[in-house]
Specification:
about 250 residues, alpha+beta, eight-stranded mixed beta sheet, three-stranded antiparallel beta sheet, 11 strands
Length: about 250
């Protein structure tokens, strides 16, 4: 799963340069930059087109954490999304008005790979393929079976998605999602139950990270705290925890 709220002062095991500050608001930074073409806006609220992603962000008030976000911004978000819709706030720590009903809350972490070392590229014989528009039905089917997090019909437009096929069937995939300046998030990492234990997830994450670093950016990702297997996988690939996050969503009144 990949929603989030940075929790200041809790666990910051990795020290990086000042450019990592954009990771405190990865949704807003992406929507106002690299993903502006996939955004919808209303005043101080911005969100992805609904068939791309559910994430929204607010322009904050005085506080760097967003705690001072005022009623105007939430009113803008309500107009943007519409009554009864889900406000998936990802990394925003801002608290909505009391009539916004909580939908979910889950603890997780944001992870980055410190330093500038490069990842090994996957060789052609490993079976890694780039997925395109024709593969979307299979991608949606794999997501339905594995539940890696929100993935919709146009989510693949956020970046490159890679997959592995076995006997012609898509059994594993991973892709690029949020794109704050200088960074790319790796997401939708999933493997069909019958294909687990073969190293497919590590292969895909490693290849994506190699492509990201090759173009001068740095990879990062989000993971639910309860997903200990995924955390171990990412740590084995050199990722370290940057911050604790809280995944939260609210229902628009």
């Amino acid at each position: 799963m990949t929603y989030g709220r940075v929790t200041p002062g809790e666990r910051h095991t990795t020290r990086v340069g000042g450019d990592a500050a954009v990771l405190d608001d990865p949704v807003g930074q992406s929507l106002r930059g690299h993903h502006a073409r996939l955004a919808r806006r209303c005043g101080r609220a911005v969100g992805y087109l609904p068939d791309v992603a559910t994430f929204s962000a607010l322009s904050v008030g005085r506080g760097a954490t967003g705690a001072d976000t005022d009623a105007t911004a939430w009113a803008d978000l309500a107009r943007l999304l519409g009554p009864g819709e889900l406000a998936d706030m990802f990394s925003s720590p801002a608290t909505p008005p009391p009539d916004w009903k909580p939908v979910f809350e889950m603890e997780g972490r944001q992870m980055i790979r410190p330093g500038t070392g490069r990842f090994a590229r996957a060789e052609a014989e490993t079976g890694v393929v780039e997925l395109g528009a024709d593969d979307v039905p299979e991608m949606l089917g794999l997501v339905e079976r594995t539940r890696p997090g929100p993935f919709w019909a146009r989510t693949r437009e956020l970046g490159t998605y890679l997959g592995i096929r076995h006997e012609g069937t898509l059994v594993a995939m991973a892709g690029e999602r949020l794109r704050p300046p200088g960074w790319t998030e790796i997401s939708a990492v999933c493997t069909a139950p019958e294909a687990r234990g073969r190293g497919y997830a590590a292969r895909l994450v490693g290849e994506l990270a190699a492509r990201i670093t090759a173009r001068g950016e740095r990879p990062f990702l989000h993971v639910a705290e309860a997903n200990t297997a995924a955390i171990a996988l990412y740590e084995g690939l050199g990722f370290e925890t940057r911050a604790e996050v809280t995944f939260r969503g609210f229902r628009v009144p």
